[in-house]
From TrEMBL, chain A:
<keyword id="KW-1278">Translocase</keyword>
<keyword id="KW-0472">Membrane</keyword>
<dbReference type="InterPro" id="IPR050763">
    <property type="entry name" value="ABC_transporter_ATP-binding"/>
</dbReference>
<feature type="domain" description="ABC transporter">
    <location>
        <begin position="9"/>
        <end position="239"/>
    </location>
</feature>
<dbReference type="GO" id="GO:0016887">
    <property type="term" value="F:ATP hydrolysis activity"/>
</dbReference>
<keyword id="KW-0813">Transport</keyword>
<dbReference type="GO" id="GO:0046677">
    <property type="term" value="P:response to antibiotic"/>
</dbReference>
<protein>
    <submittedName>
        <fullName>ABC transporter ATP-binding protein</fullName>
    </submittedName>
</protein>
<keyword id="KW-0046">Antibiotic resistance</keyword>
From TrEMBL, chain B:
<keyword id="KW-0813">Transport</keyword>
<dbReference type="GO" id="GO:0043190">
    <property type="term" value="C:ATP-binding cassette (ABC) transporter complex"/>
</dbReference>
<keyword id="KW-0812">Transmembrane</keyword>
<protein>
    <recommendedName>
        <fullName>Transport permease protein</fullName>
    </recommendedName>
</protein>
<feature type="transmembrane region" description="Helical">
    <location>
        <begin position="190"/>
        <end position="208"/>
    </location>
</feature>
<keyword id="KW-1133">Transmembrane helix</keyword>
<feature type="transmembrane region" description="Helical">
    <location>
        <begin position="38"/>
        <end position="58"/>
    </location>
</feature>
<keyword id="KW-0472">Membrane</keyword>
<dbReference type="InterPro" id="IPR047817">
    <property type="entry name" value="ABC2_TM_bact-type"/>
</dbReference>
């Protein structure tokens, strides 16, 4: 019954240069049908440039790229016909109504008027915007506009949905609502590619991800695999008045496999957080507060891309 | 060589070029249906007010003579206002709305993420502006006719010439807008130093033979002057074949050069 399907996206040595600036420096990526695939990385890591190449709107400057088995340089329109794109910044027509935005967009994919009307109604429901259907877009909240952008990207029932930082700038409520919608899409079998610099988002949504840094892929795997590979089971966080953490560093450095020094705290990577905490206390280390937690993708990220998030 | 394609489930298809252009126009029409009221004052009312104030009011003090082709001043002025109206509207439609679609609302980026290409988007935008010029001009003509300022059915041909002149100005301005990344400061200069002098001095209100000889070549460069010559010629039945060919040729050249440049700039900006 199941047919062997080729990967939806195959990139080999994919590169993008803008003048002297190398945004993407030769990456290898494969995304399979039904997957939720993430590009994780600090701002400027090359995530968005990669997304625009996959979206068949930005010609590559090196390497090879196939989307649905097609070359974006040759078959851009055919690829775009089957894609859904949710860009980093909304490109909605603020002077049209919510419904008109969906209908006009659907027409660009060659859908009939009857079909876009029908589809708009379904998508309004999906994005929980039915109440606002005939309101102008301009005064909507950021979360509503994001939901509309995602709804709009689904108008052609895409085989692959590209989401470039889908929840950046939204409040926690709006983010959770959006994640819920993306979960449903994933459940219904839509393949997702997501870029984000939010670790929780990546952990929530991605089956598999790559960490990008300075245009290269620093690591690849499922969130659990990456945590297993690049971090310890537990993390002990010791918080100090800023500056105080440097002073105690020599006392604790041998208590953990690895120590990260952040501006206001030390992160001790260890298999046994409580044990390390007790040992630190015995040596007279007195932090303002302490916390033992499990490792997260954030720790992987700090390890792989240097501790500072470039923002 | 294209590799093996994957199973298609999406309902999206690639439409042909003409249809793509048409769909862009359809999108802009959807906007216009909601917002046309706000555009009426500038696109239709302004030339009508000019006709009333300058054609009838000021014109009542002007003796018909050689300069007016022996016509009442208002009849002399009416076809030319068709041209300057088209130029004004072309300026309005190809500046802020285009910059906004690139920069503020970013709607162009939304369009080119679909199967529609930057070139098709540009054709749709240009054709849409042409339709706007045609519509506004037609309404102006109807009003001018009601006031008895129209000399005969030749003005229908004047209308087409006015649209051509408008588009000869529009295409290079769209290219200019596609190259801008400011907040519209460049447009103020365009309106002050190009549109305004062109409207006043390129033969709309008086023949350019009244200008100092050294200024006349500047007027010859403007689409307004060529448009005026054509629109008046069509309205008064005084078109001469060779001159007509020259004027039309110049306007078409401006239009084509502007459109080609705009196409390059659209591609450069939207597909990087």
């Amino acid at each position: 019954m199941s047919t062997v399907d080729h990967p939806l996206v195959t990139a080999t040595g994919l590169a993008k240069r803008f003048g002297d600036f190398e945004a993407v420096r030769g990456i290898d990526v494969e995304v399979n049908r039904g997957e939720a695939f993430g590009f994780l990385g600090p701002n400027g890591a090359g995530k968005s440039s990669t997304m625009r190449m996959v979206a068949a709107v930005s010609p590559r400057t090196g390497g090879d790229l196939r989307v649905f088995g097609l070359d974006p340089d040759v078959d851009g329109p055919r690829i775009r016909a089957r894609l859904g794109v949710c860009p980093q910044q909304d490109t909605l027509d603020n002077e049209l109504t919510v419904r008109q935005n969906l209908q006009v967009y659907g027409r660009y994919f060659g859908l009939s008027r009857a079909r876009v009307r029908e589809r708009a109604t379904e998508l309004l429901e999906f994005a929980q915007l039915t109440d606002r259907a005939d309101d102008q877009v301009e005064p909507l909240s950021g979360g509503m506009k994001r939901r509309l952008t995602i709804a709009r990207s689904l108008v052609n029932e895409p085989d692959l949905l590209l989401l470039d930082e889908p929840t950046t700038g939204l409040d926690p409520q709006a983010r959770h609502l959006l994640w819920d919608r993306l979960f449903r899409l994933k459940q219904s079998g839509v393949t997702l590619i997501i870029t984000t610099h939010y670790m929780d988002e990546a952990e929530q949504l991605c089956d598999r991800l790559v960490v990008m840094d300075q245009g290269r892929i620093a690591a690849e795997g499922s969130p659990a695999e990456l945590i297993g590979r690049y971090s310890t089971r537990e993390v002990l966080e010791l918080r100090f008045v800023p500056g105080g953490q440097e002073a105690v560093l020599p006392d604790v450095v041998d208590l953990a496999e690895r120590v990260e020094v952040l501006p206001d705290r030390l992160l001790l990577y260890t298999e046994d957080g409580e044990g390390a905490l007790a040992a630190a206390h015995n040596r007279g280390v007195r932090p303002i507060s302490s916390l033992v937690r499990r490792s997260s993708l954030e720790d992987v990220f700090l390890r792989l891309t240097g501790r500072s998030l470039v923002d | 060589m294209t590799g093996p394609t994957t199973t298609i489930r999406s309902t999206g298809t690639v439409v042909g070029s003409w249809r793509a252009t048409w769909l862009v126009i359809e999108g802009l029409w959807t906007w216009y249906r909601r917002s046309w009221r706000a555009t009426v004052v500038s696109s239709v009312l302004q030339p009508v007010l000019m006709l009333l104030a300058l054609g009838f009011g000021f014109g009542s003090q002007v003796q018909p003579g050689d300069a007016t082709g022996g016509l009442r001043y208002v009849a002399y002025l009416a076809p030319a206002l068709l041209v300057s109206g088209a130029i004004q509207n072309a300026g309005g439609e190809s500046t802020y709305p285009v910059l906004s679609a690139f920069k503020w609302q970013k709607t162009y980026w939304g369009v080119v993420a679909t199967p529609i290409s930057p070139g098709q988007l540009l054709s749709g935008q240009l054709l849409w502006i042409a339709l706007r010029l045609l519509g506004s001009g037609a309404v102006y003509l109807a009003i001018a006719a009601l006031f008895g300022a129209v000399t005969g059915p030749g003005v229908l041909l004047s209308l087409l010439f006015a649209v051509l002149a408008g588009m000869a100005f529009c295409a290079p301005v769209v290219a200019f807008s596609a190259s801008r990344d400011d907040d519209g400061q460049g447009f103020a200069g365009l309106f002050r130093f190009v549109v305004m002098p062109m409207t006043l001095f390129a033969g709309t209100f008086f023949p350019i033979s009244q200008l100092p000889a050294w200024v006349r070549p500047l007027a010859w460069l403007t689409p307004v002057w060529h448009g005026n010559e054509l629109a008046r010629g069509a309205a008064f039945g005084t078109l001469r074949p060779l001159a007509t060919l020259g004027h039309v040729g110049y306007l078409v050249a401006l239009l084509v050069a502007g459109a080609l440049l705009a196409c390059r700039l659209f591609r450069r900006r939207l597909a990087v």
